[in-house]
Design a protein that fits this description.
Layout lengths: L2 H5 L4 H18 L5 H10 L8 H16 L13 H18 L9 H30 L5 H15 L13 H22 L2 H13 L2 H31 L1
């Protein structure tokens, strides 16, 4: 079956409506008070400079979208191998907790790194429910690389609502290229694992960007994904024999 034939099996209208709703609710929620900021201010006596409102918007739109657009849900929170998915996230959390983050709040640097990274991971779970969740499942008939390109473009355009500018990336064109590249990698990982947690862990690692942790996580994650692949090959062989 050609790519064109596969693409005809995708409900593009549903994806378009979903994206408009996701962007619309994102725009609305970023106008309202930052709920997470209030919670963090109460718990740690400081005011964070980030907001979860846009991630929450994606989460709110994504969950009912499956039923409304009748999309079969294959990508779940823990995926097809729950313990492996948990280990995937644990590698990220432990690596950063060992290195630690300095802070001005009198909190142990290792504990602070764990709290900060866990919070980042939770936010990314909200966001990835849309990009590598609903969209991944909606685009399932087409190849992984094409799915990654499409998702990456939509993902990068959505950030126009969030970022004031893209100067830190050298311009939007570079951010777009990076988003597409990373999205292809994440689509591959999601296809293997069917796990939102796996995609969220990769997303969280990209945001924090510590070279040492990135190398450590990348090596361990590649090994885990290889085991995932071997697991499915063995499973298919077993079915054929039986």
């Amino acid at each position: 079956m050609t790519i064109l034939e596969k693409s005809k099996r995708v409900n593009w209208k549903a994806i378009g409506v979903f994206y408009v709703l996701a962007c619309g609710l994102t725009y609305v929620l970023i106008q309202v008070p930052n709920i997470i900021k209030e919670i963090w201010s109460g718990l740690f006596d400081f005011t964070p400079n980030f907001s979860w409102n846009h991630g929450i918007a994606l989460f709110i739109v994504s969950l009912p979208a499956y039923g409304f657009f009748k999309v079969k849900r294959k990508t779940t929170f823990l995926g097809n191998k729950p313990y492996y998915s948990l280990l995937f996230a644990l590698v990220f959390l432990v690596a950063y907790s060992i290195i630690g983050f300095s802070n001005d709040y009198g909190i142990n640097q290792h504990l602070w790194a764990f709290i900060f990274c866990l919070s980042t991971l939770v936010y990314d779970i909200f966001e990835e429910t849309a990009w590598r969740g609903f969209l991944n499942d909606s685009l399932r008939p087409i190849p992984i690389w094409l799915k990654g390109i499409i998702t990456g473009i939509l993902w990068s355009l959505w950030h126009i609502l969030i970022f004031k500018n893209f100067d830190q990336f050298g311009g939007f064109h570079i951010f777009l290229a990076l988003s597409v590249f990373v999205s292809i990698l994440m689509s591959y990982a999601t296809e293997r694992t069917n796990s939102i947690l796996v995609a969220s862990s990769i997303h969280a690692l990209l945001i924090l960007r510590d070279v040492n942790v990135t190398i450590i996580c990348a090596v361990i994650w590649i090994l885990l994904l290889t085991i995932w692949k071997l697991h499915f090959n063995q499973k298919i062989a077993t079915k054929i024999i039986n």
